[in-house]
Amino acid sequence: AERDIGEILDVSLDPLCIIGIDGYLKRVNLAFERTLGYAAAELIARPLVEFVHPDDRDATAASLLRLREGHGEESFESRSVRADGAVRWLRWNTHPLLERGLVYAAAHDVTDIRTLADEQAALRRVATLVAEGGDAADVFNAVSLEVGQLLGADATRLLRYESDGRVTIVAGHGVSRTELGISPPPDRDDAYVWSRVAESVRDPRADGAADGAGPAGVGELARGIGAAVASPILVSGRQWGVIVAAWKRGETVRPDTETRMGQFTELVATAVANAESRALLAASRQRIVATADETRRRLERDLHDGAQARLVNTVVALKLAEKAIGSEKAEGLVHEALENAERANEELRELARGIMPAVLTRNGLGPALEAVAYRSPIPVVLDLRTHGRLPEHAEVTTYFVISEALTNAAKHSHATAVHVTVEPIDGDVRLSIDDDGVGGADPARGSGLVGLRDRVEAIGGTLTVRSAAGEGTHVTVKLPLAPH
């Protein structure tokens, strides 16, 4: 009969056991041995609670006590610790036979279900933080915490790669640097060590630390790290940083750990991209305000120093002429007044052209660009492939982009010629402004190019600049014909 019972128990894929009233395991099936990683002889030599996670032992002991007191069947969940240190969640169903001093128990391994639920809950918490536009630092801290808790890592660090080659720790969770044996060289900091750990486990030639020997190539820099997993953070195709999870024991790392981390790095990337977009938008708004203020100041200065001054002189000259009527001075004063009035009128036309040229409004893009090319100090070749009028927003933006690009070329390029092409293609208007000058234009430094980009992006367009030293400057613009 005993043999028959054993064979029946071993058929089950779920862990089954018989527990004595004294709390010791009396019998286990093969599935129970596989689940906890111990042989049957080791299991029946110790009380059940010794295989339970320390945080769940009191609750498990309380359930066993209720069974001994005759409260009937008990169902509960608890964590058990395998022989290799891994933790498994088991859902228990028990049936007491007090007259025989035994408890029959069946367990179902729900680790994967619990892990998936915990993972989804953690992802939702971080995703909510990102969606609400939370501060990037809060997102970094939340991801570091959630990844550490979800993976059971002893420590996590979120690193950012700076433009000057340095590495910065922007968030961290877990045990101290002392416990991990972090020991950077004299001229380095902890971020350097963590970056080396990340590099070692991302390098396909490194074996990692499945044997608990620690990440390959790190050596004395992190003596307490038995294993580590790193997942890169990619923002707009560039590697912004990396998140590293570390364990003091290498054998506790699951093979799918990097994939699970990747879900969180995508959220970090979204948060970073959002923060960068907000920063770019704020900077663009500041530039627009500054440009508007500067334009108003320039208009006031040009009017005061130009047309206004000439009109004042005209008034003075005419008053003097009025007094001198009948004398030989009158003709010269009238001539001077007329000349001032004509110059003032021309200067006012120039100012009006800078605000919104009448030729563009009346006659369209072609004549307006021909006038710009005629006034340019550098010879301009216009290749206009438009037929009829373009939408107003596209015409205005095209005109001012080309005007500003030609002004920049005249000021900085030392070019001998500029070639301008305007062509509608597939719902867009494509512009190219190419000069044969010295090149070296940098949109990050030049306010002229930054202003062009702001104007183009304001209507949903794109602007790219190629300007290698000695190879001229090539500006390519794509503007949507439909309103943005």
CATH architecture of the largest domain: 2-Layer Sandwich
CATH class of the largest domain: Alpha Beta
Distance between the termini: 82 Å
Structural class: alpha+beta
- The coarse overall form would be rod-shaped
Give a quick account of the main beta sheet: strands, pairing sense, barrel closure: 5 strands, antiparallel
Radius of gyration: 39 Å
Spatial strand order of the main sheet: 2-1-5-4-3
Strand percentage, roughly? 15-25%
Share of helix, binned = 40-55%
N to C succession of SSEs: HEEHHHEEEHHEEHEEHHHHEHEEHEE
Spans of at least 5 consecutive residues with low confidence:
204-213
CATH topology of the largest domain: Beta-Lactamase
How many domains is the backbone divided into?
3
What is the residue-averaged pLDDT?
A: 84
Number of strands: 14
Classified in CATH, the superfamily of the largest domain is: GAF domain
Write a brief structural summary.
It contains 13 helices and 14 strands. It is of the alpha+beta class and about 475 residues long.
Verbal overview:
- By secondary structure, this protein is α+β, with helices and mostly antiparallel strands.
- The chain folds into 3 domains: 2-109, 2-Layer Sandwich (Beta-Lactamase), CATH 3.30.450.20; 114-276, Beta-Lactamase (2-Layer Sandwich); 357-484, Histidine kinase-like ATPase, C-terminal domain (Heat Shock Protein 90, 2-Layer Sandwich).
- Helices cover 47% and strands 21% of the residues.
- It has 13 helices and 14 strands.
- The protein has a 5-stranded antiparallel β-sheet with strand order 2-1-5-4-3, with helices on both faces.
- Helix 5 (111-131) packs antiparallel against helix 6 and helix 6 (136-151) packs antiparallel against helix 8 (257-324).
- Residues 204-213 have low confidence and may be disordered.
